[in-house]
Amino acid sequence: MKIAFFSTKPYDKDFFEKHNQTHELTFYDVALSEISVRLTEGFDGICVFVNDKVNASVIEKLAKLGIKLIALRCAGFNNVDLEAAHKSNIVIVRVPAYSPHAVAEHAVALIMALNRKTHKAYNRVREGNFSLEKLIGFDLYHKTVGVIGTGKIGDAFARIMQGFGCKVVAYDIFPNQSLIDSGVKYTSLDEVLQQSDIISLHCPLTDKTLHLINETSIVQMKTGTMLINTSRGALIDTQAVVEGLKSKKLGYLGLDVYEQESNIFFNDLSEEILVDDTLARLMTFPNVLITSHQGFLTEEALTQIAIITLNNITAFEKGQKSGNEVEL
Ligand code: NAD
Questions:
Q1: Mutate to test the pocket of ligand 1, among 7, 95, 103 (most ligand atoms within 8 A of CB)
Q2: How far apart are CA 310 and CA 161, in angstroms?
Q3: How far is the CA of 171 from the centre of ligand 1 (A)?
Q4: Per-residue pLDDT of the chain (328 residues; tens, 9 = 90+)
Q5: Same domain, yes or no, for 10 and 27?
Q6: DSSP class of residue 65?
Q7: Which of 52, 57, 286, 301 is buried most, with the most CB atoms less than 10 Å from its CB?
Q8: 152 alpha carbon to ligand 1 midpoint, in Å?
Q9: What are the catalytic residues?
Q10: Does a structural domain hold residue 324?
Q11: 239 with 164, same domain?
């Protein structure tokens, strides 16, 4: 099949070309949008990532241009208008699991860096400053870690935190029996918010989870709570979190995702003026650590993303089901 890739970086091209045998792949670095959609003329399908706009108007244009398949090279599909795709007879496939460990381990990396301030120590030592002032952290051992969403990534994350000797409490609409067997205690969302020293978000972004962390939920947290989000930016009402940091209710914030990340994350803007005042404000806090959506960025995850996406495309071409179709 002839597939147009959007929002591609050199590593996408490397991993996909390494594993591709049968399809004709064209890599565009621009994101899919109402304007760039015209680049899909002459293609059978497209491959998109987390911040590509796959709304109703783009889908209508894709259908007119003869696109039959949208292959997401990610797990989340909150950026796709499923109803519009269904109406246009365009099939959506995704990569439901590639390496849950990649994202779970990145959440732990944020916790460790925020707690022990390794990012600050690294810079200090490089400048010849060997002082330990203001580098005091806390033992993770025996702390309570709240996991919201215990699917593949939340499961991997909970088990790592158990390895540190943490007590893990969790909230999910579908509790995971093997985690219960391992000692994780499921409880209500309110209790997770109230009991945890560290809260990590691992649920998908849906109408129900939009701004799950907001002014009301922050009020319930312990003073000094560490909040980690490696899932989707809009799980958090960012302005409420800024207020929570200012009032010191939130003691630490680790973000790999941000509600307004599209057009910012994945790009080198070091010579540009940052126009997002909320992100700029977040970057001023000494207890905030932001990475630009790199949870998935491991050799293992990129390999699996390429192999599974290419298999999804091949299955569609053969009129078969890959099992990775996103249904309405
Ligand atoms: P998953 O589908 O395996 O697990 C999601 C879990 O969330 C499920 O157990 C589900 O029951 C639960 N859930 C759904 N709605 C809920 C609600 N209202 N309240 C509480 N729990 C709810 O997904 P996963 O593979 O573990 O991925 C989780 C999320 O991580 C994805 O949706 C995606 O947004 C994000 N993600 C981020 C990166 C990154 O690079 N930072 C990479 C991959 C995935």
A1: 103
A2: 34
A3: 12
A4: 999 999 999 999 999 999 999 999 999 999 999 999 999 999 999 999 999 999 999 999 999 999 999 999 999 999 999 999 999 999 999 999 999 999 999 999 999 999 999 999 999 999 999 999 999 999 999 999 999 999 999 999 999 999 999 999 999 999 999 999 999 999 999 999 999 999 999 999 999 999 999 999 999 999 999 999 999 999 999 999 999 999 999 999 999 999 999 989 999 999 999 999 999 999 999 999 999 999 999 999 999 999 999 999 999 999 999 999 999 8
A5: yes
A6: T
A7: 52
A8: 7
A9: 232, 261, 293
A10: no
A11: yes
Kindly give the residue spans of alpha helices, DSSP state H, lying in the chain: 10-19, 56-64, 82-87, 100-116, 118-126, 152-163, 177-181, 189-195, 215-220, 238-246, 277-282, 299-317
- Please report, for the domain that includes residue 267, its CATH number: 3.40.50.720
pTM: 0.94
Inside any domain, residue 117: yes
Residue 172 belongs to a domain: yes
Say yes or no: 50 and 111 in one domain.
no
> Are 114 and 92 members of one domain?
no
ipTM here = 0.99
Number of folded domains in the chain? Answer: 2
Quick one: which of 122, 123, 120, 183 has its CA closest to 147?
183
Ligand 1 pocket residues where CB is under 6 Å: 75-76, 97, 100, 103, 148-154, 171-174, 202-206, 208-209, 230-232, 256-257, 293, 295-296
Dist. CA 155 → ligand 1 center (Å): 10
Same domain, 118 and 230: yes
Note whether 96 and 75 are within 8 A (CB): yes
Same domain, 278 and 131: yes
User: Which domain does 208 fall in, by range?
Assistant: 100-290
Same domain, 145 and 184: yes
Domain membership flag for residue 239: yes
* Ligand 1 geometric centre to CA of 148 (Å): 9
Burial (0-12, 13-18, 19+ Cβ within 10 Å), 167: middle
Same domain, 144 and 167: yes
